[in-house]
Amino acid sequence: MEHFAVIQSLCRVGLATQDDKFRKQVERLLERLKKAGDAESAESLDRLLEAQQQSLALQPSKVELSRAAVGERLTNSVNPPHDRESSSPLAQIIMDPGSETPPPVLTPDLQSALDSLLQEWVDYDELRTLGVAPTQSCLIFGEPGTGKTVTAMYIATRLGLPVVLARLDGMMSSFLGTTARNIGALFEFANRYRCVLLLDEFDALAKLRDDPQEVGEIKRVVNTLLQCLDTRADLGLTIAITNHPNLLDPAIWRRFEVKIEMPLPPPDERERLIAGFLRPLSVQDSGVDLLSWASEGATGAEVRSMVNAIKRYSVLQKTGEQRGKLDPQDILAALQRYYITSAKLEDRSRLGTLRDDPKSLARALLTSEDGKFTQSTVAHLLGRDQGTISRWMREEPA
Hints:
- It is a single chain.
- Among the domains are: 1-57, no CATH class; 92-262, P-loop containing nucleotide triphosphate hydrolases (Rossmann fold, 3-Layer(aba) Sandwich).
- It contains 18 helices and eight strands.
- The model has no long low-confidence stretch (mean pLDDT 81).
- The strands form two sheets. The chain has a six-stranded mixed sheet, sandwiched between helices. The chain has a two-stranded parallel sheet with strand order 7-8.
- It has helices at 4-16, 20-35, 39-57, 97-100, 108-122, 124-129, 148-159, 178-192, 216-232, 250-254, 267-278, 285-294, 300-317, 328-341, 349-353, 358-366, 375-382, 386-394, and strands at residues 92-94, 137-142, 163-167, 196-200, 237-242, 258-262, 282-283, 325-326.
- α8 packs parallel to α9 and α17 crosses α18.
- It has 398 residues and is α/β, with parallel strands linked by helices.
- 52% of the residues lie in helices and 9% in strands.
């Protein structure tokens, strides 16, 4: 279809509004394209519709708790506990965690696991009749930037509970006994109110007690933490987050009923992340495919950083109405600039390939396992004619 790239961009922007009437018109256009035999255009629209549907499915809906939520109601007027010596707060109270972070992009298996965990709290009374309680402790671990905190906030949002967020690395004190006292004060506060207790940087305090590098104080701290976890077991949901599960004391590890590892996003989840982060920019599918290809092995946080670099590029390099529109060549230029200014690139081989000569880049794109690039799209991306790309592919690689 002539000018389909423009129509596709309009559909992408319109679907982002989540207007049902607009979606219906896009579905009608899809049927027309299928009847006309335009398979390539129909496939592109089908992908847009599927991405929008998946985005809607991620919108968190609160579960209806039974009598599971015990304790006083936490309000904005309640102050968090403080360190007695420094008067600094031991935690941050987040009344509406859903407004702080967007819903996470989860694999189907992980989404199913979280749904089951949340359903336990809905069926609290039925579980109690069988002599068991819903899951009340959860450890989330994985590489930095994989969405651990976002997932914890998502759980709290679905439960309709505020979050008491404690970064345990900030609770350490040089005064003997103060760290243990701070831990006790934190748990005493969380046990009083209906909330989700979120322990960030958990490995800072839950270290191995037989670590020869640690002094005796850490053993007292871990023992206090174990006792506090035991007293909270029947009072609410506790979520701990760590980047280093191997540093945790085995006794601490056993205190958590559920352990969730946050993996690096697979290709389809990464594309959904990209589509969400790109809004409201208008980007052709080939540009999205390039960004997805270049971000192989990246965490969700790294994908967001790459997309933010593209948005900055759109403001710095475009003027007027063109600021919201980027063609694939713009995406390539923005990613090349991002490569120059970004750290930790030794394990980002695809991103580094973007700085290679055009011939090597063309070969890398066309021989990748993704299978999304054709000689036509690569020619457009590199500003060459298709005959040149075809000749490059026939030549022996350097």
